[in-house]
Design goal:
The chain is mainly α and 204 residues long. Helix content is 73%, strand content 0%. The protein has helices at residues 16-39, 43-65, 68-84, 95-112, 122-128, 130-150, 153-164, 169-176, 180-197. The protein is globular, with a radius of gyration of 21 Å.
């Protein structure tokens, strides 16, 4: 006797979020594999990493410096520096966090080399000059170093991408290969932990 169609067990469909998580996990695993291979001397793997990150890094740097040509120069410097320092990359951490940190520090260093602001324009420059903002970012790096000691790797990465790189939840989830919900949980736990250990009013 045939089983009525409505009574037959149907294969469980994967939800969109499950599919997204799987794709993100796969992407992160691929990036990690490429980074490890590049660290071992595989130039082709490094070039694949460049292809994966160049557009996102350019957008990040352009947002920092507000100049197309300067952002392009800093992008190239980021990849050159990353290649030279591959030996120091720790696969325990996401490659994206590592290379974005390099890009951010190069932007900060660029503005540090600029001439000091003239005295008569100093008051106005505090509010409007990108150099002032980036120097403030440099001071914040010491706070980020403290933060790393108190958080798990995932909590730190979520906090860094969301606040340090000023990404929204969706962008942070994409970089970390996690769902938006997971990122929200990580941010909540990280903020709660830091509220216990950092002085009140600490800005990162």
């Amino acid at each position: 006797m045939a089983v009525p169609a409505e009574s037959r067990p149907t294969p469980e469909r994967k939800s969109a979020s499950t599919t997204d998580n799987t794709e993100r996990d796969q992407s992160r695993a691929e990036e990690l594999a490429l980074a490890i291979a590049a660290k071992g001397g595989c130039m082709d793997s490094f070039e694949q990493l460049v292809t994966r990150f160049e557009n996102r890094l350019f957008a990040f740097l352009y947002k920092k410096v507000g100049n197309h040509h300067l952002a392009q120069d800093l992008l190239q410097s980021t990849f050159v520096t990353a290649y030279r320092k591959l030996h120091s990359y720790n696969p325990k951490y996401a490659f994206s966090t590592w290379i974005y940190t390099i890009a951010s520090r190069l932007a900060i260093n660029h503005f540090r080399r600029k001439q000091p602001v003239e005295t008569e324009h100093a008051d106005r420059a505090v509010e409007t000059n990108p150099r002032s903002k980036l120097i403030a970012s440099e001071r914040a790096m010491s706070i980020w170093n403290q933060i790393r000691e108190f958080l798990t790797e995932s909590q730190f990465n979520a906090l860094w991408h969301f606040y340090g790189e000023e990404r929204n939840l969706e962008e942070t989830a994409g970089v970390m290969s996690k769902s938006v919900g997971s990122v929200k949980v990580l941010l909540h736990r990280a903020r709660r932990k830091l509220a216990e250990v950092l002085p009140r009013g600490t800005d990162f």
